[in-house]
Design brief:
- The complex is a heterodimer of chains A (261) and B (113).
- Helix content of chain A is 27%, strand content 14%.
- With 261 residues, chain A is α+β, with helices and mostly antiparallel strands.
- Chain A folds into 2 domains: 23-127, Beta-grasp domain (Ubiquitin-like (UB roll)), CATH 3.10.20.30; 130-142 and 160-256, Alpha-helical ferredoxin (Fumarate Reductase Iron-sulfur Protein, Chain B, domain 2, Orthogonal Bundle).
- Chain B has one domain: 3 helical TM bundles of succinate and fumarate reductases.
- Chain B has 5 helices and no strands.
- The termini of chain B are far apart.
- Chain A binds chain B through residues 185, 188-192, 221-228, 256-257, and chain B through 2-4, 6-8, 72, 75-77, 79, 84.
Chain lengths: 261, 113
């Protein structure tokens, strides 16, 4: 039987976490922020010892706590595959999706989970998305075009790959709110539209089928709109879907300064 | 006024101020720094009409840019309809007062009063 020798530099590093087939699971400490603002309780951290495998995600660890130690931990989740954007939270200080963050990748035996910044807390890890969704709606997240009405003679709206490329990555947004949570402007300016809303505005402005550019630019061009972005770039850094809101904001500014289209 | 127009003014005044302050600094370098601060030399700047006009323009550019910058910072610090109105009108008033006071100085020095 022929064997293939893997060169040394190509060999994968041995993870510090146990191999699934052979070793026992590692134990980590999960610190969960607990608070209930409606009852005026201050935030405290509850600690739980959790057995984890190298594939265990933070969400699975939280669900383990709910199943075995304390079922009252409030956490929002749904798809468990980074598609629904429900399980956003601060994991060891960084806004991340709990279902998309493996504990083995965090390089720590103590994992601290807290609710996202810049959102009102409902309870424990669950935050209120009301403002995020209302801002998203204000951006008119749909193609505005007279030709969008379907009649018997309607033909498909042709787009070249180049046209698509202009907005494609921005349409990957799952409205998880991580970008808004990481935004330093949002932490002081509660009226700021935020990277999520601005990115959605750009997504449709950059779409060549859309005729609503003027309407959208008017919405973002206000005192708490696009000009309040400081270009910290943390929104792009935390996005789990590879969207670059900081770039969208700069491109949108280009339109307002007369460099776009 | 739309925020994009305000920000265009903001960026424009910044560029203008950098250019004119550079000219101002270069003028200071035509002589020793201590000499440039001599009473007669300072007064001579104001008596030279193009230079006095340049100082007036620098005053306007810096007042507009500075107070708009302050307005932006204050709007980010706190929100509210009444508060924002006070900040917006307050910064316009502060700009006008500073320009008026600075212009008065330039005029008085220029006319030798």
């Amino acid at each position: 039987m022929a064997t293939v020798e893997i060169p040394k530099e190509q060999k994968a590093e041995v993870p510090s976490f146990s191999s699934p087939a052979t070793d026992k699971p590692t134990t980590i400490t999960l610190r969960i922020a607990r608070s209930n603002p409606s009852e005026g309780t201050l935030t405290k951290f509850d600690e739980f010892k959790i057995p984890v495998q190298k594939w265990t995600t933070v969400l699975e660890a939280i669900l383990y706590v709910k199943q075995n130690f304390d079922h009252s931990v409030a956490v929002r989740y749904s798809c468990r595959q980074a598609s629904c954007g429900s399980c956003g939270m601060k994991i060891n200080g960084k806004p991340s999706l709990a279902c998309y963050t493996k504990i083995s990748e965090l390089d720590s035996n103590i994992i601290t989970v807290e609710p996202m910044n810049n959102f009102p807390i409902i309870r424990d890890l669950t935050v209120d998305f009301k403002q995020l969704f209302s801002t998203h709606k204000k951006m008119k997240p749909f193609v505005i075009s007279e030709e969008s009405e379907i009649t018997s003679g309607t033909k498909e709206s042709i787009q070249t790959p180049k046209d698509l490329e202009k907005f494609l990555q921005f349409s990957y947004c799952i409205k998880c709110g991580l970008c808004n949570s990481a935004c330093p402007t949002m932490s002081t300016d509660s009226s700021f539209i935020g990277p999520q809303g601005l990115t959605q505005a750009y997504r449709y402005v950059a779409d060549n089928r859309d005729k609503g550019t003027k309407e959208r630019l008017k919405i973002v061009d206000q005192s708490h709109g696009i000009w309040r972005c400081h270009f910290a770039g943390s929104c792009s850094h935390v996005c789990p879907k590879g969207v670059d809101p900081a770039m969208a904001i700069q491109m949108l500014r280009g339109y307002l300064l007369g460099f776009g289209k | 006024m739309r925020e994009s127009i305000i920000m265009k003014i903001h960026y424009g005044t910044a560029l203008g101020a950098v250019a004119l302050v550079a000219v101002h600094i270069l003028f200071r370098m035509t002589q020793k720094f201590s000499d440039s601060l001599q009473y007669q030399n300072v007064l001579a700047n104001y008596h030279f009409l193009p230079y006095a006009l340049m100082l007036e323009v620098v005053l306007v550019l810096l007042a507009v840019h500075g107070f708009n910058g302050l307005r932006v910072i204050l709007l980010e610090l706190k929100q509210g309809v009444a508060y924002e109105r006070v900040i917006n009108y307050g910064s316009i008033a502060a700009m006008a007062i500073l320009i008026a006071y600075g212009s008065r100085t330039i005029l008085m020095a220029g006319m030798g009063i």
